[in-house]
Amino acid sequence: MAHTCEHCHEEHHHHEVHHHHHEEGGIRPRIVKIVLAALLLAVAVLIERQTDLPIWQYLLIFLVPYLVVGFNTLKEAGEALLHGEALSEDFLMSVATLGALGIGFLPGAATQFPEAVFVMLFFQVGELFEEIAEGRSRRSISHLMDIRPDTAHLEKDGRIETVAPEAIAVGEVIVIQPGEKVPIDGVVLEGTSSLDTVALTGESVPRSIRPGDEILSGCINLSGVLRVRTTKASGASTAARILELVEHAAENKSRSEHFITRFARIYTPVVVGLAVLVAVIPSLVTGAWAIWIYRALLFLVVSCPCALVISVPLTFFGGIGGASRRGILIKGASYMDTLAKVRTVVFDKTGTLTEGVFEVTAVHPEQIDETGLLHLAAHVERHSTHPIAAALRQAYPQEQDGCEVGNIEERAGQGILATVNGQRVAVGNAKLMDAVGAAWRPCHHQGTLAHVAIDGNYAGHIVISDRVKEDAAAAVAALHEAGIRKTVMLTGDQEEIATETARQLGIDEFYADLLPDGKVAQVERLLPEGTLAFVGDGINDAPVLARADIGIAMGALGSDAAIEAADIVLMDDQPSKVALAVRMARRTLRIARENMGFAIGIKVLVLILATFGIATMGMAVFADVGVTVLAVLNAMRALRTSGR
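RE: above sequence
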């Protein structure tokens, strides 16, 4: 399994089946082989100490444990040679160990049989560690994979059939029992329940659902029976899309990873060349072939790049897995690289820093009382689809109270006029008040004003504003604390509202009254100042998400366009996850760098010692396998989810 260590990262998910078998069937036999070979090696060493046999008989005795533990490595090395990949680490290991077995046959050389077996044994221990660590990070990503159920209950002609989710067409009705996972996105027709959305969003508080609500695949239905009309095909549903994102995450390799692959390509031939020189030149001068061939073999063992080839991709894979547990999906290791370097964070306002839900925040009546003012406004706006109208209707829900509402006239960009119980009521902005001749008053509250006039007389106004998210201010503070130089807010809202929101949240700069292309222009202007991340949530943010160095989609289960365009998807609506993502990316990169520095440092040291004859085969093994094991253990820290 060794020579594939660079490739298995590239092909992680294409081999889901192979990997699964790998975990079940791979680790136990490997442990058995290692233990068995270790016992046989101990027996062989005892025989060597206690007896006096011809050298070829000792070779046969030591070959038993050597082949038990090393047969696979030799086989992989042979296959790699046939495929033209001569310089794989299995090949280096095989040459070094076979050379050590053969060196005893040179005149005047001591036998190195135990060392040869020991190197192979230790190499397998390193591989075992790699497999266990990889299994762990794959499990942390595959716990996300559990979000897609295998069956769905389809309602057909009054009967319920159990079918695979793939077999269900858009617009069919499915029934979801309590305790079951939602198989496909849809809209609730009947039933109330609460949903556990933790697999999708990381939110621990269940979400209550009633008829008319949208329901997303991957959630767990906790309490009631739901009838749902499907709105997407199984392959396009939320759970399927998330799985796809995660599966492709390992494919976009980061620059550091590319560096490792490039490094191994140049490094290995150089090392093999040097080893040959170490074996040949001093031997020709001194005639001590056995000593210098042994040193060259040490050189080969030490220089094996497996610590790098294994630990760096593993670190990134662990980082992506750890982040996914916190509801942060990073689509590839290359984005982790970029995320760690972010200097400017640009936020879209509505739906990202604010809830995107409008509500009445103040009522300032004149002539009539508050209830009367809300009552009239809700009646006039009863059929409008504008979010402001929805906010007014929500503030006065008892709309069916027998009032007569007639000849409704909508004026684009101004508001609505209607006759309520014989009075002509106008609800709209200042332009509409001027048009009906009502003397309107400005207001010190931030938000959108809905002015009301009755028969041309001013009756007061209602303030409607968008709620700021609970953790938005903390999110901005956390970014500043993480060393982000500048936070910027872009919005299509009016200047005054933007000013107030930016002040409330402690944002450095903001730009208001922007259309989507205006947002792109602002981002392009900010790009030269350093690596830029854009955080948005809607369809209109897709072009900006694609343009920024790194696009982060919020609560992205909403807009497919945003999810497609983004590099990172935050599964819940919390802007505070942006700072956590930056911290986790920085930590992952730091671990990768530690591993590279540590591995290269120790190798160079032992190579120098080997050339001067101070190093032993044991040291060489440590410089290769020991370093790999330590680097892999260090890489596993990237799975931790605290982001510190």
